[in-house]
Amino acid sequence: MDRAGVVFRVWGCRGSASTSHADTHRYGGETTCFEIISGQGERLMVDCGSGLRQFGLSLEYSGTPQLKRPQINVLLTHHHLDHIMGLGLFAPLLNESAEVVFWSEDAEASRASIDRLFSPPIWPVKLTQNKLIAFRSLAAHDNAISGFMVRPFQLRHPGGAVGYEIRIDNRKIVIATDHETGDAVLDAGVHAASTEADLLVFDAPYSEEEYANRLGWGHSPRSAALAIATKAKARRLLLTHHDPGATDSALDHIASQLGAAPLETMLARDGLLIRL
Length: 276
Fold this sequence. Notes:
The protein is an alpha/beta fold. The protein is built from 7 helices and 14 strands. The chain has one domain (7-275): 4-Layer Sandwich (Metallo-beta-lactamase, Chain A), CATH 3.60.15.10. Strand 7 and strand 8 form a beta hairpin.
């Protein structure tokens, strides 16, 4: 991969559940998983949805154990199933070819949530017993992780969630999935983090009409995402967390309406690469 600049890659952008149908193959059906690569080749992952499996298979060191294992750093936004479901088949852990460090607001809560899902009788092995896994808590302010500066901020979502302001190589990427606008204090925090972001990744699966029937679900209408991005003077907006029922043709129709947006706006799709 060209290391001339920062690269953002989408490995999964569906919300709630993965999907695999002929009418969703262009935008993809994997759940949330993002990768950020610095100009120096350092890597930072965000969330472990079903897209994590394909990411793991893409790594050149995923097939065999390493004498000196690389470290993969993963930011967790929250512990809902669609954001951690890819862990069980993550090749670097299965093949003991990398160390994986999970970063979150509360390391013990992350450990407990992953342990609850990935252990018998739900999963055949207890994933957290893998000696290559570590859990670390983030401070409320800036955290240095392999050259990335990471600051968490609170999101409005059932059970709680955090977004991330990530800075690397004079670029700023902001992850705001999953967030439902409408809380003035939390919206102000999202706005502050997103100010002049080179890329704002925002959870916005609904039209205004659809959102009216989904109040309290923890997700936003596209109009709210555009309003925050515009007010924050973000340079680019990537809409993610697509409804599992949204077909390629439905998403094409949404994408066709984004040309009138006041800033560059696009829909996420599995495999999308954005160079910053």
